[in-house]
Input
Amino acid sequence: MIRITGGILFLFWTSVVIGAPQADYYGSSEDGGCPEEGVFGWAHETACDQYYKCTNGTFSHEQCPNGLVFDDKNPVHDFCAYYWKVDCGKKTVEPPISSPGCPYQFGIFPSDSCTHYIRCAWGEANVTDCEEGLAYQDESHSCVWPDEVKGCDSEAIVGFRCPDKIVGLSSKFYPFPRYPHPNNCQKLIVCVNEKPRLLNCGYGSAFNLDSYTCDAIENVPDCKAY
Output
């Protein structure tokens, strides 16, 4: 496996062309239906993971890579998106083709750790870390607050236990008391239903111990930017 870092957060989904499509070309359509300029795709009648494509006047019948289905709105490869983002209805889909670490050749899958997940492309498994303080949720295929993921220990992931009693400036923000991060002055911890969540003040900001809010870093003299 290849290990890469970077949160998703929601993994969220920018179209990325991962490789060249595999296609059986039939030449230009006889009736001139394919525009001479531009690339267009439309759904196959019965197969969810197949589609038709026009490329600068040339017509082709395409097959999405295993684990992907046709979607011209939020593709991750050519005109294909992850199968869980599309309602295929009664259309057919080819069975999974697995490889080490990958149930399908393409997809996003849980790993053996709450804080990272596996992204598969062309059957190669890439272990990807969630952003610090988040955990992977298989239902949404994204990284979320760890207290929202069954079986994940938010205290262990965040490195903080919410106090039983809320005192001092923390009580000002009840029912979501906040606390300074023990090791990073540009972060803070907010307790939600007695579970810790890690937040960042953002670039150029730091947690001000006088107000318990994020402030310009120059107003927090004891904080050095990380």
Residues 160-225 form one domain. The chain has a mean pLDDT of 87. The chain has three domains: 39-85, 96-158, 160-225.
